[in-house]
Every structure is written in C-alpha cells, then in structure tokens.
Amino acid sequence: MxxxxxxTTVVVPGAHLMSALLGPRDQYLRRIEGQFPGTExxxxxxxxxxxxxxxxxxxxxxxxxxxxxxxxxELDDRTVDRSIGMVRSDERPTEVLTHQVLRGxxxxxxxxxxxxxxxxxxxxxxxxxxxGIGPAGxxxxxxxxxxxxxxxxAKQVQRIILTRPAVEAGxxxxxxxxxxxxxxxxxxxxxxxxxxxxxxxxxxxxxLERGTVEVAPLAFMRGRTLNNSFIILDEAQNxxxxxxxxxxxxxxxxxxxxxTGDATQVDVADGRSGVKGLERIIGDVDDLAxxxxxxxxxxxxxxxxxxxxxxxxxxxxxxxxxxxxxxxGAAAGG
Length: 334
Fold this sequence. Notes:
single chain; alpha/beta
C-alpha cells in the first residue's frame, strides 16, 4: 500500500482475486464506498485507489480483505461489515477471522467472527476464570464449549463439566413429564447442542457415557472439588449470589472455568442475580478476566443484532431517565 497526502493505492496481487474482492456486480465495493462517504474509491486493473480523509483506512481495509482471500476465507456482506468495524477500531481482520479454535464435527472450522469474540477466546486461553457477559447470539457458550473440547483433545484437562442453573423462565418444572433428570434435561439442551457441533454424535455419546463430559444442573456442584477439569457455567445471570460463590469455590487444581451470562435476561427470583456487581467484587483477582460482548458481536441473523441493539438503546435511555428523575418531596436546591 502506498500513500501520498490523501491518496492511497493498493495493488492486488493477481487479477484472480479482484472479482472476489469487489463482490458480485461490485457489491462489496459499493458497500465500502457507502461506509466511507467522504472518500472516493476507484478501480483500474488490479489497482484500487482511495482519495479522501479516510483513504488510509480504506487502503488498510482492502489489504486486510485481500489477506483473508489469500488464506482461503470467503467474503460475504457480514464479513465485509465486520472487517470495516475492525479496521475502524484499529484491529486486523486477518488476525481475528483466521484464528482457528478447533476443527469441529464434519470438518467445520470453529473461529471467532468478531474482535470481541477474539478477545473472549484469548481471555479463556490466558486466564483460569473467564466471565463472558453479553446478549444472546454472541457465541459465548458455543466458543466456550469449543475451547473446552480443544483443551480436552490437547490433554490439558481430563474432563469437561457443563452446568446451568435450572431456573424457570415462565414455565414450571413440576409440570414437565418424567423424573428429576428428565425435567431438568430441557434446561441443559443448549449445552448438548453446542457439544454436538464440536464432536460427532457417536464421539459425544462415548464422552458422556464415560463421564469425560458431564452435563448437570448447578445444584449438583455443591460439595464437590473439581480438579483437572474445564468447567462451563452457562446462563450465570440466573444464579443467586450464594450459588455463584458456591460455584466459584468448587474450583480445584489444574482446572479452567468459563462463566457466561446475559444481564438483560435475568429469570431468578427477585432479580438477585449472582452476576450483578460481581466484577466490582472480584474483578481485581489475578488470573481472572471479564469480557463484555455487545450487539456488534452477534453472529446470528442481522435482525437479532438489530433487536439486541434496540433493547440496549432502550435500557440506556431508561437508565438516563431514572437518574434524571427528581425525588418526590425533595426541597428545591437540596
């Protein structure tokens, strides 16, 4: 990439990359132009030039997209949009989107899809306890299970323990058919689903039968010391403060823990969530990290990201209104 004043030129190594880089009918080129309206982008042969206040960012963006293509990554609208966001945040899509966590079932590569997810994966790798806090669709549980399977395959741990609080979200456990485990099973099903994404069904069944992978409600953790394990506590916003303390004190030697939660979906009675205020209490502890994911890290359908963003805006405006609301009966001037 060469830059002169407000002109930046990128030479694409090989005309065969140009069509994939620009997209069908120049769809990705138009998308990039729309995101940088003050910068003019022109294409001549295998050279892309950008002139304007954002010319350097646009040049780096095209270099990063070329790097993704050279590493076998296919571009689509979401990848281009995420890459734009990363470049604007001075992050490199080639480092984020090509980072392989695990080769999952059916040869599927498990990779972070956003910069926030990459920070989350790095935190899990570098800490004993990691809290992944964020809305639905940000890959908190899915990536945690992938990291657990990777650690098991690398013989860094001897078993995986997946647990959730069995808190009712509007339905009653007692009305479900079957014994206690049959009643609890639907609450644990999302963890099974994530496991089956990482390991083929036969392999997952063997791991479960041998106890190498254990899926159990949080209440079953009381009184245990969990050594040499990769432990995932999912839906942690539905723990009470007492349950959270109980869980965190179960951790033994050679273990790694990931706690996931969504503070906007608390179903626990009286709203006494074990996640609320927790970072203030234990955030300074060594080998422990909190990673906050946002609507920008949602990797489901775009409408999910839009819904999450709408809820976040409503929550922020509600908080501002509550802070600004005067106290009844207070004298003017305090």
